[in-house]
Amino acid sequence: MKMNRKFAAALGVVAVGTLGLTACAGGEEAATGGDASSAPMSSSSSAPMTSASPSESMSEDMDAAANLVGPGCAGYAEQVPDGDGSVEGMAQDPVAVAASNNPLLTTLTSAVSGELNPDVDLVDTLNGDEFTVFAPVDEAFAAIPEADLTAVVEDADMLSSVLTYHVVPGQLTPEEVVGMQTTVQGEDLEVTGSGDELMVNGASVICGGVQTANATVYLIDAVMMPPAAK
């Protein structure tokens, strides 16, 4: 299916106002909402299992937020201060599970899990290796005209192509991700800027460097289109 110019324009950069793009507080503390049972535990034959000490919890929180960049990190923390979808909570789960717990990524989660099209289910793939994921937030999908979005969703090949174009093999930090990157879809995308001003093919990184158990996630404000579909 060849995508028309109207859809190409619709998949351009979409500003996200609801996140309140305020300065990213890289070390901002939020209450941990992850599943404690998924964290590695040291074995002991004499002492029962106990929850992590305050100092251990603080250390985990600091690590999860250590590489955050983007003007919307503070807004993200305000919207999702704790729980499984928070910065600390997402660090406990593989990426598809972590995204499903994030209230900002409900449309993306539906798209990769087979809910929108049963022939496109990428959950096992995303959870099975290390990736860098550029994750469009819900407002980015909402800005696409409904008819155009429906056309893509109903075309399994096109939907798969668009989704895998947002995924790069390996976990890349905000410093490492800058430059040309080859996606799982096979074509390249370009990350430019630095710090809180990272851009991906012209889409803005709202909050990036978010860790999951197997991936590094960059929340972005647009759905990107593979060059071959333009």
UniProtKB/TrEMBL annotation:
Secretion signal, residue range per the UniProt entry: 1-25
InterPro entries associated with the record: Adhesion/Biosynth-related, FAS1_dom_sf, FAS1_domain
Region described as Disordered: 28-62
UniProt KW Signal keyword: yes
Alphabetized Pfam families for the sequence: Fasciclin
SMART domains: FAS1
Low complexity: compositionally biased ranges: 28-57
Gene3D superfamilies: FAS1 domain (2.30.180.10)
Chain ranges of the FAS1 domain: 92-224
PROSITE patterns tied to this protein: FAS1 (PS50213), PROKAR_LIPOPROTEIN (PS51257)
Keywords tagged on the record: Signal
PANTHER family registered for this protein in UniProt: FI19380P1, PERIOSTIN-RELATED
Protein name (Swiss-Prot/TrEMBL): Fasciclin domain-containing protein
Organism placement in taxonomy: Bacteria, Bacillati, Actinomycetota, Actinomycetes, Micrococcales
